Amino acid sequence: MSVDTHDNELIELLRKGESAAFRKLYVQHFNMIRYFVINNNGREEDARDLFQEASVVLFEQLSSGKFELHSSLKTWIYAVCRNKWLKQLEKKKKNIRLTDFEKAEDVMMEEKSSNEIIHQQLRISLSRLGVGCRKLLLLFYYFKKNMEEIATDLGYTNADNAKSQKYKCLQKLKTIYSGSETQ
Q1: How far apart are CA 127 and CA 176, in angstroms?
Q2: In terms of Cα–Cα distance, which of 135, 126, 142 is closest to 166?
Q3: Buried b (16+ CB within 10 A) or exposed e, 106-121
Q4: How many CA atoms lie within 13 A of 35 on its CB side?
Q5: Exposed site from 22, 24, 37, 116, fewest CB < 10 Å?
Q6: What is the pLDDT of residues 150-175, one digit of tens each?
Q7: How many Å apart are CA 96 and CA 67, to the nearest integer?
Q8: Cα separation of 29 and 50, whole Å?
Q9: Residue ranges of the alpha helices (H) in 39-158?
Q10: Contact 101/148 with Cβ under 8 angstroms?
Q11: Residue from 180, 159, 56, 175 nearest 117 by CA
């Protein structure tokens, strides 16, 4: 692949240490790296650090005279940043301690207990609800029936009446549930 003349011009300006060239490098290529890092478990500041590291590598290679560009500068920067980021992710993965897993397990157990309490309160609240409301809510939420089917099954005159009744039943359930939360 031939190297773009704009890339060659930018590389020559970078070799000379032109500050405008470094700004141009950043403007042209940072967003690509930011997008890559953010979409791979990173933050914008991680992307800035990574881009800075790649810029240092580029500057060192330019200064030593060992730099040869065989693709576009964009491809080179992306490859360097991608490799560095993947190494950082791998290192983070290896540094996860057992205590992190234990903390996560504790949080999951607390959430499970909390969910069990919520489900229990909901079951109690449903049992306090009238039979008609319980049937209507079960048909809609559990059996996934539409309002027309529910109207037919429960003897409402039309789907709008069933929908209105469902709203009233939900309001009753909310009232009963909120009362059980304080007990």
Answers
A1: 10
A2: 135
A3: eeeeeeeeeeeeeeeb
A4: 5
A5: 116
A6: 999 999 999 999 999 999 999 998 88
A7: 37
A8: 12
A9: 44-64, 73-94, 98-128, 131-137, 147-154
A10: no
A11: 180
Cβ atoms 147, 163 nearer than 8 A: yes
Q: Report the amino acid identity of residue 54.
A: A
- pTM metric for this prediction: 0.49
User: Using CA atoms, how far apart are residues 38 and 43, in angstroms rounded to an integer?
Assistant: 5
Q: Is the distance from CB of 169 to CB of 133 less than 8 angstroms?
A: yes
Exposure on the CB side of residue 157, measured as CA atoms within 13 A: 2
pLDDT (tens digit per residue) in 45-84: 999 999 999 988 888 888 888 778 777 888 888 888 888 9
Place of tokens 């190297």: 3
